[in-house]
Design a protein that fits this description.
Length: 262
């Protein structure tokens, strides 16, 4: 596929998650010849998908060079399995878990599939308007043998009162917050009030400087302070707020990308 056609498809894609879009973006950038073209593509993609940190990381790798881009692509393709393995072993109860989730996180899906339906009594998937991705996630889980259903976004209090654990994904992890589909913060706050454990599941590719997050340009997302979570579960296992801040603060991006965020 022509790389610019691939870029246009990525810009127009409103359904795929950050992990899939990042892999597709890396493939397209590998076919571009100059930093000028990479930055041109970055302006187009990040104007629409700027809340997705892994896309910023992919563009940074492409500007660093072909080897860095290839390493980033390999990391993206292995990350989901590593997060799922860590989360299935750490964030889920060993049996009879009632799980609530929001939107349609590939990391949450992979974790549930890794754990298996025998460990999970029920999965409540918020419908997650606008977009309604929760309906598709519930249907996919049912096909995999889980007792799963989509519930109204307004029903989170009832769901959290019955839940053992709330699992959410993250499109970005800054030193201060996780950025995810709007409605994540109300769900996390409700989980805390109800006494349900609450974890964000995401790999290191989602870590980025705070300046990538511009709420005025990403109205379908909200930012949840990391202190509200029991932990972030990444490839190596759980990280508490202080560890997340240290790791995210170590991430730097090409200064030419920062101009795009303004």
């Amino acid at each position: 596929m022509d790389p610019w056609d691939a870029v246009r498809r990525i810009v127009a894609d409103k359904r795929s998650g950050a992990a899939e879009l990042a892999v597709r973006t890396a493939a397209a950038l590998a076919e571009l010849d100059s930093d000028r073209d990479i930055l041109r593509a970055a302006r187009r993609v990040l104007k629409v998908h700027g809340a997705m940190a892994s896309l910023w990381r992919v563009f940074d790798a492409a500007l660093t060079g072909s080897r860095a881009l290839a390493r980033m692509r390999d990391e993206l393709e292995s990350e989901s399995d590593a997060v799922a393995s860590a989360a299935a072993g750490w964030a889920l109860p060993r049996r009879n878990a009632m799980v609530v989730t929001h939107s349609s996180s590939s990391a949450v899906l992979a974790t549930l599939l890794r754990a298996g339906a025998a460990r999970v009594t029920r999965v409540e998937c918020t419908t997650s308007l606008p977009g309604g991705e929760g309906r598709a996630l519930a249907a996919r889980l049912r096909r995999a043998g889980f007792a799963a259903r989509a519930i109204p976004d307004a029903a989170i209090a009832r769901a959290c009162a019955e839940a053992d654990v709330v699992l959410v994904g993250a499109d970005a992890i800054t030193p201060q917050a996780i950025v995810n589909k709007c409605g994540t913060m109300p769900l996390v706050l409700t989980a805390r009030e109800c006494g349900a454990a609450c974890y964000a599941l995401a790999g290191a590719s989602k870590m980025a400087p705070a300046w990538i997050w511009n709420p005025r340009r990403a109205i379908a997302y909200d930012a949840t302070p990391i202190e509200l979570l029991d932990a972030l579960v990444c490839e190596r296992g759980p990280m508490r707020a202080a560890g997340v801040r240290r790791a995210a603060n170590r991430v730097t991006l090409d200064t030419r990308l920062e101009a795009i965020a303004r």
